[in-house]
Amino acid sequence: MSEIILVVDDEARSIDTLRRVLERERYTVRVARNGVEALDDIQICMPDLVLLDVTMPVMNGFEVCRRLRDREETQLLPVAMLTGLNDDESRILGLEMGADDFINKPFERTVLLARIRSLLRVRRLTEELESTERVIFTLATTVESRDPYTEGHLRRLASYSHALATAYGCDAKEARLIRYGGLLHDIGKIIIRETVLQKEGKLTDEEYEEMKKHPQIGANIVAPMRFSVSVGPMVLHHHERWDGKGYPHGIAGDTIPLGARIIAVVDSFDAMTTDRPYRKGMSRSQAVQVLRSGRNTQWQAELVDLFVELIEHGHVASDDLSWVLHND
């Protein structure tokens, strides 16, 4: 199947030129004659590349580009702006709105095709990376299936982490990354023996040392992901303590990444309120008391207080994982 290029332009001559050049190279060309039409078309059928004129009626190219970048499903869609404007201000504005490239009018065929091939190559690499990420997310759910007593743990952690991050004042992007961290935090347990994961009773010193390896292994597993710079430290440090007595590095206070501090609170709460082979889960009120007793020692006090407030107001609920496992 040929790659789809959406041409967004209100000039018939420009459209005809682009269509002729692109179809000769066996690309599938779709056309929108203004920004609103383009946004509607993209929602119906996602293209592989958008060639976007800057100056159009109804909605200019800068605004179209901004709206594409504001939508999660089109944040990584390649966009090249078509322009007869050669001033630096227009180019800077386009880059700030999220454009990947500028192609000057009138088009020089060789340059046009070289730019298009380059952008489509990046698109293909991005799709390969997305496929790898879906495998990693699926692997995370596999970890949960190895321990029947933690069923639903990842859904709850993803939801709890997102809720607490939002309450703490994180913007939508950071809260979403922390949600990913909540989902992936225990992925390193894939290498831990099931006899250790499912053991009824206290771990031996040797077993505990084995268990303590999972944050570093998890950070290594998520390293190929696009957002590993943000999520990797959450996975690595989610067992650190506010007072510096955690693992693997024994860091303390604000030196612990925010996402890891958030996950530490919600992970502990979920562990306390979940049944285990060797004990019954606590009630929510009992778990809240434990969280409060660990303010400024095990956990950051402000995060504990915010999470308790969310619990008491009924704002903490589980979630399903379709949002990430099937995020096309």
Q: Any overview of this molecule?
A:
The radius of gyration is 25 Å and the shape is elongated. The chain contains 15 helices and five strands. Helix 7 packs across helix 11. It is 55% helix and 7% strand. Strand 1, helix 1 and strand 2 form a beta-alpha-beta unit. The chain folds into two domains: 122 residues, Rossmann fold, CATH 3.40.50.2300; 168 residues, Orthogonal Bundle (Hypothetical protein af1432). It has 328 residues and is of the alpha/beta class. One of its GO terms (molecular function) is hydrolase activity. This is Phosphohydrolase. It holds the Pfam family HD_5. One of its GO terms (biological process) is phosphorelay signal transduction system. Keywords: Hydrolase, Phosphoprotein.
Protein topology:
Blueprint: E1 4-8, H1 12-24, E2 28-32, H2 35-44, E3 49-53, H3 61-70, E4 79-83, H4 88-97, E5 101-104, H5 109-145, H6 153-168, H7 172-184, H8 194-197, H9 205-211, H10 214-222, H11 228-237, H12 258-272, H13 284-293, H14 301-312, H15 322-325
Parallel strand pairs: 1-2, 1-3, 3-4, 4-5
Summarize the structure.
Residues 4-120 form the Response regulatory domain. The chain is α/β, with parallel strands linked by helices and 328 residues long. Helices cover 55% and strands 7% of the residues.
Which overall shape is indicated by the principal axes computed on the Cα atoms? elongated
Share in helix? 40-55%
Assembly state: single chain
Largest sheet: 5 strands, parallel
N-end to C-end Cα span: 18 Å
